[in-house]
Structure formats: C-alpha cells, structure tokens
Amino acid sequence: MSRERRTIRPYQGVEKFQLILDDLYVEFGDRQVLAGQLATTSSVDFVSQPVRLVLAEDENGRDQVATELNAACQEAHLASRDLDLLVVMRTSRLKLSEIVWRVSLNEINNCSPRIDLSAGDRPRSLQTPMGGCVIHTFIALRDARKRVALAPWRKGTWIAHAEHKIKTNVNEVGFTPLELTDEIRAQENLPPGTLRFAIVEEPLAESSGPESIRLYIDEEVLSELAANPTTDAAKAFQRELFMTAMSAAVTESSLQLSSGQQVTVGEIEGSVAHRLIELVTGDASPKQRDDLHQYFFKMLQNDPARFVAHIENRVPDYRKQIVATLRGSTK
After folding, report:
1. How far apart are CA 246 and CA 105, in angstroms?
2. Which one-letter DSSP state was computed for residue 111?
3. Which of 256, 259, 260, 326 has its CA 20 to 30 A from that of 118?
4. Lowest model confidence (mean pLDDT) among 1-10, 44-53, 115-124, 269-278
C-alpha cells in the first residue's frame, strides 16, 4: 500500500476511490512502481522501455476493479459514466504536462488489464530522460454537474490521485531520439542507407540536457523498436543506440579538448564531457573521485577509444542482451 501523503478531498463518500487507486501500479519494463514510489533507471531504458498502468493481473482482476469502482460510485452518489480514470505525465524540466490515456469508469471492464502508456507515438515526457517524469493517475469528474454541498461539481475536479515517479541516474548523459527521415539525410548530407546519426552540440559548455545530443534513428527502425521494445533484439539494439550516442559525444569532446584550448576538469563541470567523466567514474569513494576525474579527463582527451570501452563497461546487461540475441532467445 502507498505511503505517500494525500491531499484530503472535501467530499463525502469518496474514500474508496483512493484505496482503489493505491492498489494500481505502473510497470516500467519488468519493474513495478507502486503509488508513491520512485524508480531510478538508465537513460537508454527511460526512452525505450514500455510503460504500463496495471489495473490487475488478468481480466478477472480487472472485472473486480470495475465492480469496486461501481460500489465506490454508489457510496459517493455518483454515476460511473460521470467519472474518468485518466493518466497524466509531467516532466518539470520541459514544464510539460500531457494526458496520455483516459477512460470512463463505466468502460473499465472493456479495457486491457495492462494499459500500455508508451504504445504508438511515445509520450514526450518519456523521450527526455534528463530529470525523468511523474506519472499521475486521477479519478476525476468528466463534466460539470449541478452544485451540491460536499460533492464534486466542477468539470475536471479530481476525487482520487496517485503518482509514480521515474527518473534517470543523476550522472547519466541523456540524449533525444529523433526520426531519421530522407529529408534529414539530405540536410545532413548522409547516404541513403544511414540508419543512425548523432549530433553533439557544444560538449564542453554547460549542458542544456538531452537536447545536447540528438540521435537520429531510421524512422522504420524506430517504429519497429517502439512496437516491439521487450524482445532481446530490441533490448540489445537499445543499448547499441546508447553506445552510438555516447561514442559521438566522446569523439566530439575529445576533438574539442585536443584543439589547443586549455581547460581543466573543473572548468567543464555541468557539461556533456563532464557527465561522461562522471559516468565512467561511477560510485567511487570521495577520496578517489578527484584522482579518477583527472585520470578519465586525460583519457577522454588523448585516448577516446579506450574511454568508450569504459562507458561500455557501465551499460547494464549489455553482454547478456547481446548473447541472448545471438542465441535467438526471446525469453
């Protein structure tokens, strides 16, 4: 059960709605994120893993949720057709808020027990890993009603709310995946068979977030990846895309550091290059961090291929996914 603090709604008979929302959870990849909880993940998984709202484990459980919602409506003297269950994703960095799914409570038993919130065009909140996002579930009034004391009446008034937080690791380097179309290929003077291409903006300047690295991916490939994100091949390719973006960032950082401009590791703090150094430094003790920062700073400047190898070492389950793909496993 959730332990998050609640705003008490000033309406009679709505307590059961909150209890029902508390039992729903978000599924991020193969991880459960309960109401009020925070899940931390890598940038590559943030922009690629499926995200689902789980009403129940199966159709029988979903029907039980529908029954409980109808009972809660009766207790609150509300009609199920007058209330919506909706999901809103918010990201503070982009100041973005978007409704990604909604359904009337009287149609719950027609829904899948697991609602895929990332299907089709992935919500923008799930495309910008820097800062993560908050997934809000609400039960809210669909339309305005006659005003009655101690009862909701304004359109959009919510009577129950839960939130699930997903964020990326603080020191990760984010990137923005974009469709690589024929127009982009022509614009960037790329050959027609190009499947991926990364552009890195000012890697030594203070980073503006994932917009600093734009990773263009062939539109057909990106569509297939979105449609089948949980196969071993997709998981392996997601990590390959991450390495493509990181390799481009390392190359551009190394070129600028070697161009004759004299800078120190402290002077590039907050930049893409500094985040790369933080990424390979990992969870070193405070006593070791300064020495490791200097060590990797010099490696980034003088030996970018070796630096990329250290990044590869930090990608979770990379070997596992590559091996599984080569073996043809889909488990």
Report:
1. 45
2. S
3. 326
4. 1-10
Torsion angle, alpha carbons of 208, 213, 218, 222, to 10? -60
For 250, how many CA atoms within 13 A lie in the half-sphere containing its CB? Answer: 27
Instruction: Give which of 45, 30, 28, 29 is closest to 241, Cα–Cα.
Output: 45
Residue tagged 């600093």 (tokens):
212
Confidence grade of residue 97 (pLDDT, cut at 50, 70, 90): confident
pLDDT of residue 45: 77
A 10 A CB-CB count for 170 gives 8
Q: Which residues contact 86 (CB under 8 A, 6 or more apart)?
A: 99, 101, 102, 103, 137, 138, 140
In the chain, the amino acid numbered 55 is L
Cα–Cα distance measured from residue 120 to residue 106, given in angstroms and rounded to the nearest whole number: 25
Q: For residue 211, what pLDDT is reported?
A: 67
Q: How far apart are CA 239 and CA 324, in angstroms?
A: 13
- DSSP string computed for 214-258: EEEEEHHHHHHHHHSTTSHHHHHHHHHHHHHHHHHHHHHHHHHHT
Q: Where are the alpha helices (DSSP H) in 47-97?
A: 59-75
Please classify residue 119 by burial: count the beta carbons closer than 10 Å to its beta carbon, then call 0-12 exposed, 13-18 middle and 19+ buried.
middle
> Hey, what are 188's tokens?
């960037």
Return the H-helix or E-strand segment holding 198: strand 196-200
Question: What is the SS3 assignment for 138?
Answer: strand
Rounded to whole angstroms, how far apart are CA atoms 55 and 283? Answer: 37
CA distance 276 to 301: 12
The whole-model pTM stands at 0.58
Distances in Å between the Cα of 139 and the Cα atoms of 123, 142, 156 are 21, 9, 9
d(CA 87, CA 303): 47
